[in-house]
Amino acid sequence: MTLTLSSLEQLTDTVNEARNTQTPLVDYGIYHAKLGHLPPEKHTPYTLAGDIVEHYVNDFTVRAHAGITIGQLNAQLFEQGQFIPINCDDDLTLGEVINHNVYGSLRLRYGSMRDQLLGLHYLDNHANDIHVGGRTVKNVAGLDVTRLMIGSMGELGIVHQATLRTYALPAEVARIDLEFKSLDLLPQQITDWMLSPAYPSSIYLRRLGDAWHVELGYLGNTKANDVQVNALKDSIADIDDIELTDERRVTVPEHLKFGNQGRSWQRKTKTLVKAICPPREIPMLANTLADMGVTQIGGYPAHGCLLAAGALTSEMDLKLQDTLQAIGGMRQWIIPPVYDDGRTSCVTPFAPEQPDWTFLSRIKKTMDPLNLFNPGRFIETGASA
Predict the structure, then answer these.
(1) Distance CA 324, CA 307 (A)
(2) Domain check: are 182 and 113 in the same one?
(3) Are residues 149 and 182 in the same domain?
(4) Distance between CA atoms of 180 and 213, rounded to whole angstroms?
(5) What is the pTM of this model?
(6) What is the side-by-side order of every strand in the sheet holding 44-48?
(7) Per the structure, how many domains does the chain have?
(8) Which domain holds residue 43?
(9) Would strands 44-48 and 25-26 be described as parallel, antiparallel, or unpaired?
(10) How would residue 344 be classed by pLDDT, with cut points 50, 70 and 90?
């Protein structure tokens, strides 16, 4: 039975019980539930609940429990004319977003969680409530534990509260859809846009049928968006391989909702893999996936991130690894392939091996020596608590 913990007292008691019984605590999240190695046979699954603790409206910061979902958080911030620019699925909790460093196309303008998270509270395996960071930016000396927790997959402690920047809601979003006949042009186009008045707030790449579509978003007032959209049109006017297929203006809440709908394929597939590479190598990576027969591809080309879904196999994974090894990238299976009889295939969750993995293993042993939190999820340890 999964424990739902809604107070610090419940969380503290649960950690103490886990330590005393040597039973690890496991929370892999929703979107990332199948990512990484399997938990040990003996473990206690848990989830967090919560709400906004305090919204410092004039300071543009918010403090919230890690169990609040991004949809719930933004819905309350919208009422004050503010929002958190993490365009992910609404049902992901703040804790899952922090643990997996979740980002979307708005990272281009607003940065990732590493730029938006100011401070957090987490419990270590002795149930100590550790406070790191705060409501100001320049308050860190030595190791920045706040950012160390981002992307830690819940292995270093249980984040139960966080303080983030908030941002004023722009008046509108100009959404532009471009069709690329060849992706070879994309890296240079992105560079050109980012060095000109056509600089977009977001870029999202999606394969639709046999065509590559790039959706650009401009967040601002109508006059500013007009200037940027016109600059974009001028930049592609003489390029035959790029066609503007759609243009519309929406609100920020609508833009985020469209993003949820546009990513729904990632939650409705048998397999899902995330690949990261240098942004200049996106055409090679995307074309390699397409040549393997993968039809569901999307991602964030400005950040070198692609996601691919569908009938992906263990054999295809080997070819993908070879490509990533050649271009200096890596991949992680969010939903790994399975055999026809339902057994999980032998693909490794994360590959190729990276130079910093030994260091990350040492960090885990230092911050969680009892191996209580999601043990072995990232780097398999073969041990329980």
Answers:
(1) 14
(2) no
(3) no
(4) 6
(5) 0.94
(6) 3-5, 44-48, 25-26
(7) 3
(8) 3-168
(9) parallel
(10) low
